[in-house]
Design brief:
single chain; 495 residues; alpha/beta; FAD/NAD(P)-binding domain; 2 domains; 5-stranded parallel beta sheet; 14 helices; 32% helix; binds flavin-adenine dinucleotide; EC 1.-.-.-; Flavin_mOase
């Protein structure tokens, strides 16, 4: 019997899921709300470029063309690369563009008791003879269009973590954007165009990659005449791109020995324990180099957490070129504050006596990825499995309590493309009946073990659904083991 698979999203993750399911003999249908592939790369600000070196953000069977010579290609080149990949593996015919999935609902026989299962979906298998998913879709650009339903045997959610549902803070009544005479945008807005920003006083909120990129771009355009303000709560370590390149290069089997790994044996544990001072030392060396290279002290930009904490929680922010030159030159002003509210002509900032007069406020404060994921489920039972601090995913792809479904691209990592490719291969292998899942209890135990290891290095910065730089290789080894291959024999500098 032909098993039907629905893939939701045609960004990097959806393309990978599509490629590997096709390769394993399935005929997946990919629903994509936008008119094209690429997800985040198809709609971003002009200055966005890869912050992962391109050789680490590369499909294992489809290299970057020789014409792309830079280590960190810009978003246009990433898009061309993804288009070429999709064309090469003939993925386009499987994709239904401009089609938004409004909900998914699991149809089960009335006598099914999912709470008493020991095995995922009752059998531990990807497909069930009775359970199906109902996928409801609608024309993406016409909210009043008729809905259509598809019944499928398995759903792969690839809806992305850094897109669609903006995360903006709540404000007390009469202290939010409604009282502000200027314009309020989110970094994902299409109208974040140059004309809008030119000659305007702009304040960017946040301190992650999008925030510093947007602020640098605005400062570039407006110069010292209309300085841009970057307003943030917490400072993170920002590293120059050449530095990141060498960090990635230094990750090999030797560095892996220094860290505690989930489920490690006694000797591994002992070795990691005895070598742990090296890890602490290298973190301190990096911090000293950054403090020495950039005027962090002068601008009160030394983070309260260690560099190790930060890379262990998947927070990588590449310092835009000439960032501190712009600060020193007066085109960019850095402001740290716990909170702020809006007033008629700008922002009232906690600890400041006068309001910050501004014309445009751009929130670069991320996305509500958990909520987006939760909202796609019709059943409150499944919604509740997602809430909390992100979904506890076995092998960062399978929720032990949600059968016949996988989530790809949700776990952050230094190269989402690499990790998702490995997971897609592994998932397709499982779908083709070539591997099994452990019991639900074992999966949950495994998730907890990973969490413990990650917390050890991430400390207070810990967030779920992240495979840190240090554990990426080990994570791939686990996936490889599931598929019966030995990753240690493969040529893999990283992941
Ligand atoms: C500015 C920026 C820079 C980045 N740089 C890097 C980097 O250097 N290295 C790195 O590893 N990662 C980077 N990332 C992370 C990036 O998100 C991933 O690398 C990867 O592109 C994510 O792909 P995805 O397919 O999982 O998600 P997305 O790219 O978000 O794609 C999700 C797709 O799903 C579609 N979709 C969502 N909901 C629905 C629905 N209900 N119905 C139908 N379709 C739906 C969306 O339209 C979208 O096309 C960056 C992200 C951003 C925002």
């Amino acid at each position: 019997m032909e098993r039907k698979i629905a893939i939701i999203g045609a960004g990097v993750s959806g393309l990978l899921a599509c490629k590997y399911t096709l390769e394993n003999g399935f005929k997946p249908i990919v629903f994509e709300a936008r008119s094209g592939i690429g997800g985040v790369w198809s709609q971003t600000i002009e200055s966005t470029k890869l912050q992962t070196p391109k050789s680490f953000y590369q499909f294992s069977d489809f290299a970057w063309p020789n014409s792309v010579t830079e280590t960190f290609p810009d978003h246009n080149k990433v898009m061309e690369y993804l288009q070429a990949y999709a064309a090469h593996f003939n993925l386009f015919p499987s994709i239904k563009f401009d089609t938004k999935v409004t909900s998914i609902d699991r149809l089960v026989p009335s006598d099914e008791d999912e709470h008493s299962w020991d095995l995922w979906g009752g059998t531990g298998k990807p497909f069930s003879s009775s359970g199906k998913w109902n996928v409801t879709v609608q024309e993406a650009r016409n909210v009043s269009s008729a809905t259509e339903a598809y019944q499928v045997d398995f759903v792969i959610l690839c809806i992305g973590r850094y897109s669609d549902l903006p995360n903006t803070p709540d404000f007390p009544m009469n202290k939010g954007p409604e009282v502000f005479d200027g314009k309020v945008l989110h970094s994902m807005n299409d109208d974040l165009a140059a004309e809008l920003i030119n000659g305007k006083r702009v304040t960017v909120i946040g301190f992650q990659k999008s925030a510093v990129d947007v602020a640098a771009e605005v400062a570039n355009r407006n110069g010292v005449r209309y300085p841009c303000t970057l307003l943030f709560k917490t400072v993170h370590w920002m590293v120059p791109d050449y530095f990141l390149w060498s960090t990635f290069r230094s990750l090999n089997r030797w560095t892996e020995l220094i860290i505690h790994k989930p489920g490690e044996g006694f000797f591994s544990w002992l070795l990691a324990l005895s070598l742990s001072p090296l890890l602490w030392l290298s973190s301190k060396v990096v911090e000293s180099c950054l403090k020495w290279t950039f005027p962090l002290k002068k601008y009160n930009m030394i983070p309260g957490h260690s560099f190790l904490n930060q890379i262990s929680s998947c927070m990588f922010t590449v310092l835009p070129r000439n960032f501190y030159d712009r600060v020193q030159g007066g085109g960019l002003s850095l402001m740290k504050s716990r909170s702020f509210t809006f007033c008629k002509n700008g922002l009232v900032i906690d600890g400041e006596t006068t309001p910050l007069v501004t014309d445009i406020v751009i929130f670069a404060t991320g996305y509500k990825s958990d909520e987006k994921l939760k909202n796609i489920f019709k059943s409150t039972y499944f919604q509740k499995q997602i809430t909390g601090s992100s979904a506890p995913l076995y092998r960062e792809g399978i929720h032990p309590q949600i059968p016949q479904l996988a989530i790809l691209g949700y776990a952050d990592s230094p190269s989402i493309l690499r990790t998702t490719e490995m997971r897609s291969k592994c998932l397709a292998h499982f779908l083709a009946g070539n591997s099994n899942l452990p019991t639900i209890k074992e999966m949950e135990h495994n998730v907890m073990n990973w969490e413990k290891s990650m917390r050890l290095y991430a400390g207070e910065s810990y967030r779920r659904s992240c495979v840190s730089v240090l554990l990426q290789k080990y994570s791939n080894d686990q996936l490889c083991k599931d598929m019966g291959c030995n990753s240690k024999k493969e040529k893999m500098v990283f992941g």
